[in-house]
Design brief:
The chain has 196 residues and is mainly alpha-helical. Helices cover 55% and strands 10% of the residues. Helix 1 packs parallel to helix 2 and helix 2 crosses helix 5.
């Protein structure tokens, strides 16, 4: 049961975004108008807290968001090498702490206390307000790419130093690409198997 929850979180927070982006990338690159890829991340965890072991589900969420950030920066670098005119821009966004059901797998008392503390500190955003940083990235000019938007009002910040590790990003890209290619080829293999 735990492994299926782990894989679901990684699939949702990283593999899904990687796969969808790679499927749409040819269309985006050939579009007559500039295109944008916006990945929603969480800087408060991505690459900040890796020194101590974590309990599920926090560490899986943390690593999946780091993977998304590494992917965002690596895609930005690769597209910059292929297309100097920036037909496709890639940005990451942290909307801040948002009142959602993200902590549904934690004890309800812990979720309640967490939300109350964030609210008292003025750090908890409604989903309606949190969308502003996503809109900042989505509406940015095409030249704006490789930026980490945070909290709305056009603000951007530097993400964790680990998120800029190009070696790690390239290794993640290669591994994810291999997995993606295997998934793309699987239906063809199954059809060929049925024909034999």
């Amino acid at each position: 049961m735990l492994s299926s929850k782990l894989s679901r979180m990684i699939e949702t927070n990283y593999i899904g975004a990687f796969s969808l982006t790679n499927l749409l990338l040819p269309l985006l690159r050939n579009s007559p108008i500039p295109s944008r890829i916006v990945n929603v991340d969480n800087e408060s965890v991505a690459g900040k807290c890796y020194s101590t072991p974590k309990q599920y589900p926090y560490y899986v969420y943390e690593y999946s968001k780091l993977c998304l950030l590494l992917f965002s920066y690596e895609l930005h670098r690769q597209l910059g090498l292929m297309d100097k005119s920036r037909q496709v821009s890639v940005n990451a966004v942290d909307p801040g702490a948002v009142k959602t059901n993200i902590m549904r797998e934690l004890p309800s008392s812990l979720s309640f206390v967490s939300f109350m503390v964030l609210k008292l500190l003025g750090l908890l955003h409604s989903p309606e307000n949190a969308v502003n940083s996503i809109l900042d990235a989505a509406l940015a000019t095409p030249e704006v790419s490789g930026i980490y938007f945070f909290g709305g009002k056009g603000r951007s910040i530097k993400s964790s130093s680990l998120s800029y590790d190009t070696k790690l990003a390239k290794k993640l890209w290669e591994t994810s690409s291999d997995l993606f290619q295997d998934c793309i080829l699987l239906p063809e293999i199954l059809v060929l198997h049925d024909l034999c």
